Amino acid sequence: MASVKEDIELLIGYVYENASKGSLLNEVAKRVEWYLGTPSCPLIDVEVEEKVSEKEFRAYQRVQLSGVTNMFDLINACLFSGLTRKQCIYIMENYTVLLTKYGR
């Protein structure tokens, strides 16, 4: 009997094979991969350097100030800012330091 994770991985494969780029099904598959931490997901592949660039911090701030999503909703915060999950968490944990470093 297959595990839930194996079932979801099969579903992701099916969705990718049958969905056109940019479709809703493709987006759902990306979010499920991100949630499961599947290595092929681009949102979690990149290791965070100890420092976040000013450009990355500003991207995070733009999403934050736009109010388009709750920043604790990491899936949407990452998608809208273009940052990885680890980068968003790093910024959240070091927000005051980065704000002092880069200014408002």
Question: Percent of residues in beta strands?
Answer: under 5%
Question: What's the shape?
Answer: elongated
Mind describing the biggest β-sheet? none
Kindly state the number of beta strands.
0
Helix-strand sequence: HHHHHHH
Distance between the termini: 54 Å
Low-confidence segments, ≥5 residues, pLDDT <50?
39-49
Structurally, how many domains make up the residues?
2
- Return the average pLDDT rounded to an integer: 75
Give Rg in angstroms. 16 Å
Question: Structural class given helices, strands, pairing?
Answer: mainly alpha
Helix content: 55-70%
Q: If helices are DSSP runs of H or I spanning 4 or more residues, what is the number of helices?
A: 7
What is the topology?
Elements: H1 4-18, H2 24-36, H3 42-45, H4 54-66, H5 74-81, H6 85-93, H7 95-102
Helix pairs in contact: 1-2, 4-5
Describe the structure.
The longest helix is centred in the N-terminal third of the chain and has 15 residues, at 4-18. Helix 1 (4-18) runs antiparallel to helix 2 and helix 4 crosses helix 5. By secondary structure, the protein is mainly alpha-helical. The chain folds into two domains: 4-45; 54-102. The chain has helices at 4-18, 24-36, 42-45, 54-66, 74-81, 85-93, 95-102. The chain starts with a helix and ends with a helix.
